[in-house]
Amino acid sequence: MSGLFLRTLREDPADAEVVSHKLLVRAGYVRRVAPGIYSWLPLGMKVLRRVEAVIREEMDAIGAQEVHFPALLPREPYEATGRWTEYGDTLFRLKDRKKADYLLGPTHEELFTLMVKGETSSYRDFPVTLYQVQTKYRDEERPRAGILRGREFTMKDSYSFDLSDEGLKDSYDAHRVAYQRIFARLGLEVQIVSAMSGAMGGSASEEFLAPCDAGEDTYVRCPATGFAANVEAVTTPAPPEQPVDDKPEAVVHDTPDTPTIETLVDHVNTLGLGRTFTAADTLKNVMVKTRLPGAGEWTLLGVGVPGDREVDMKRLEAAVAPAEVALLEDADFAANPFLTKGYIGPVGLAKNGVRYLVDPRIVTGTAWVTGADEEGRHVVDLVAGRDFTPDGTIEAAEVREGDPSPDGGGPLVAARGIEMGHIFQLGRKYAEALGLTALGADGKPVTVTMGSYGVGVTRAVAAITEQHADEKGLVWPVEVAPYAAHIVIAGKDPAQAEAATTIADGLAAAGLEVLLDDRKASPGVKFADAELLGMPTLVTVGRGLAHGVVEVTDRASGERREVPLEDVVAALS
Ligand code: ATP
Ligand code: MG
């Protein structure tokens, strides 16, 4: 340690919100260069290399072959698939000295497709699976969580190329198993959830989420059936449609000063309508605007949800992707005077030609209390299918614990997780866009079908920290720890230094990498650093040496035992 390029910090970095960010910086594993952009120091590099090694071994084991693409890429392939614009502000775009457009790769489907197109011709060349471990660039909107969400980060991405749907399914399943093995070896607990494939297009898709409070993904599961899905992928079961003609007539009421659902419900309950209303009887109309990236013009969209639920922006974003979506600002209201803030209703939206999508619960025959498009007025018993007809449904309302599982299995429970990996069956979208075909056995061309699979490599380092660290510092699972053991020389007695060196040499000879704290620091400083740095096993050479023993501490459990000097190497190996 006296020669290790390392400085530990006593204070958490001011900008750090999550445990992994605080600890990886304090323990001298990473340093921030700019928001979402980090440098890796020697200890961090060792963990990163070990994570990569596990991933490479498991990818190689399913027959995937490693390649490498540049991060700096020309515009054209991304133009061909539409992603040059679809990626929106997340894409880092730049120009070279000749003013030609380039980008920093956020993901590499296009390049892999073109490589396979260039190197293959007949059905005999398939199936094939390729992967790389490469730096990705995404100008993330919220790079808040340290290396959990970087703007520059490392990803293992792989792509399978098959000629048949069954082949794609096999490649997908092989990845699924490989990912389970990878995360088990990395010491990461993961939950596999159904996912949306979003901007990537394609069909079947699952995410591997590491359950943890710092996670930015919310998922739900049904304990009874094992159903699990990212909330973005949860579909709302629609109640049965009802007759419209037995419903009371829609009546507009004065409801002064009721801009919120709560004030509205209170007021309507004072009208003496012979029923008690709750927030779930109201229809809340949230105004947003959408646009296709690069299209310039924003279009208004009304989103109707039952008033006891909020609109979940992440679900809404996923539902309208690849279009971008934003809430209306004051200027938008000013430009559209027919929008009476707080009193917007489906009738006014229809009159003004505004597209209106509703939560699947708002089926024909359901009656609602909603805005009457005039300041201080609401309508009661506005019936869907009779008084208004939405343009369609949208999955934008929040999903809550206790909601019925889409598979009919009972109530859902909710939890948070970090997206560690994503696997999906892309299908033929990229092959079609870029003309990847193979000559079949019958001489006819076959369009190749693809799968795309990603693991966050740098993110894994942070996620492991989130799941294992404690209040004293980092705790590394053996497979990824920078060093298997950390030896502390507790006192000044030269015999201790000598014994510690002997142990270190013995462990090294047994194939274990060890960190030896030979610094002239106080035992307190050394122990605090050892706990902060998080090697799985701590060997303390101190007073016990007089009786021929050293202390061996397990970092994760805190369990200590005395081990005779001559048994240490055997005990740790
Ligand atoms: P997220 O929803 O967290 O933004 P994503 O859906 O955009 O992730 P993919 O495009 O599927 O992610 O990328 C594959 C993997 O790369 C993810 O499962 C995740 O582990 C990792 N990853 C994605 N974005 C980042 C990032 N900004 N920083 C670190 N790792 C990331
Ligand atoms: Mg993302």
Structural overview:
The chain is α+β, with helices and mostly antiparallel strands and 573 residues long. It folds into three domains: 271 residues, 2-Layer Sandwich (BirA Bifunctional Protein, domain 2); 143 residues, YbaK protein, CATH 3.90.960.10; 88 residues, 3-Layer(aba) Sandwich (Rossmann fold). The protein has 15 helices and 29 strands. Strands 3, 7, 8, 9, 10, 11, 12, 21 and 24 form a nine-stranded mixed sheet that branches. Strands 16-14-15-17-20 form a five-stranded mixed sheet. Strand 22 and strand 23 form a beta hairpin. The protein is globular and about 95 Å long. About 1% of the residues have low confidence. The protein binds adenosine-5'-triphosphate and magnesium ion (MG). The site of adenosine-5'-triphosphate has 16 residues, from strand 8, strand 21, strand 24 and helix 12. Homodimer. Its main location: cytoplasm.
Sequence-ordered SSE layout with sheet pairings:
Layout: H1 19-26, E1 30-34, E2 37-40, H2 42-61, E3 65-66, E4 72-74, H3 76-80, H4 83-86, E5 92-95, E6 101-104, H5 109-119, E7 128-137, E8 152-162, H6 165-185, E9 191-194, E10 205-211, E11 217-221, E12 228-230, E13 251-254, H7 261-268, E14 283-291, E15 299-306, H8 313-320, E16 324-327, H9 330-335, H10 346-351, E17 355-358, E18 367-374, E19 377-383, E20 392-393, E21 413-427, H11 429-434, E22 437-439, E23 445-447, E24 449-456, H12 457-468, E25 485-489, H13 494-509, E26 514-517, H14 523-533, E27 537-541, E28 549-554, E29 560-564, H15 568-572
